[in-house]
Amino acid sequence: MRLLGRYLSRSVLTATLGVLLVIVGLDYIFTLLEELKRLTDTYTLINASVYLLIRLPERIYLFLPVAILVGVLIGLGSLASTSELTVMRAAGVSIPRLILHASRPVVVLLILAMLVSEFFLLHWAQTADTYRWENRTGRQAATVSTARDLWLKEDNAFYRINVARDDGRLLGITLYELSDDWQLQKRVTAPEAEFIDGDWQLQEAREVIFNEDQLQEVTHANLVLPLPIQPEFVALQAYSTGDLPPSKLWTYGRYLESRGQPSGFYWLAFWQKILLPVTVFAVVILGASFTFGPLRSVPAGTRVFHGIIIGLSVKFAQDLLGPSALLWGFTPALAVLIPAAVCAVWGIWLIRKAG
User: Fold this and answer.
1) What is the pLDDT of residues 339-350, one digit of tens each?
2) Which strands form 199-210's sheet, in the order they lie side by side?
3) pLDDT score, position 235
4) Rounded to the nearest 10 degrees, what angle do helices 45-54 and 56-81 cross at?
5) Which helix or strand (DSSP H or E) is residue 341 part of?
6) Cβ(203)–Cβ(222) under 8 Å?
7) N or C: the chain end with fewer CB closer than 10 Å?
């Protein structure tokens, strides 16, 4: 039985890695062609190629679920086409047992993907973006993470920050404070602010107060302002939620909730990452059930087609339910779990029907 398990696992792993290589390779080529439009005298083809190589782990993480699904279909399908699965079942091995053996490499790949997502993706994204920026501008980037052109809101106050650094410095701050009927009451500008003793302190701040019949201008050498952001969260503003690890999504989502600010997209990304193994295993069960049922004797190309259709259908369903969850107010976790549950139930039904 152990030898049988290794044989099944090797077949699925080989097929999955082959599919992943093809998908990532095609994505690299097409992305490189798109990047050619951004070439300059200092940002050459070699620089663009290196930039995409640094971002390659992110693309592998993105395409891994589809590669696993198609790999399971091809790996088990090739065994079914040569009647090897039929022989295994005739020897007394149940369909759930066969799927369990085939899922072992899936577990390993998912563990690696979760570790990469938590500890490496954000660092690689920062490194890649810094590398491209330095080559396109010809300047040396700062050693700290920065975010540019931020807009923040708290109550009736709107903040615009030209450059925010995660070492506790903000550059180019403008505050617009509105009344309850949305009339401009005050504007504060400052070239720089530092996070000192738990507060943001504006240097050389210029405050303009809009009264009904006049403007009043006041200059402050130092002005404490309750900016709704902490230094450790500044760098997060520069990256998409897909680049952020689950731990930072959780921390930042709770922080936004404590400030009364919208946090739905961060919670949606958090649940998508945390529940990725659930989603993958659900579609794997459905894909494997097709191997023992409707797709038992079809060509490999047909299996690949069905695998892509299943993967895209689940992805589109989650993408549609995600914003719907934020709009209607139910937990974003359901937007991830509902398509996965449908796939799992459908797959289990097909397996029981076939076996």
Assistant:
1) 999 999 988 888
2) 146-154, 157-165, 169-178, 184-196, 199-210, 215-225
3) 63
4) 70
5) helix 332-354
6) yes
7) N
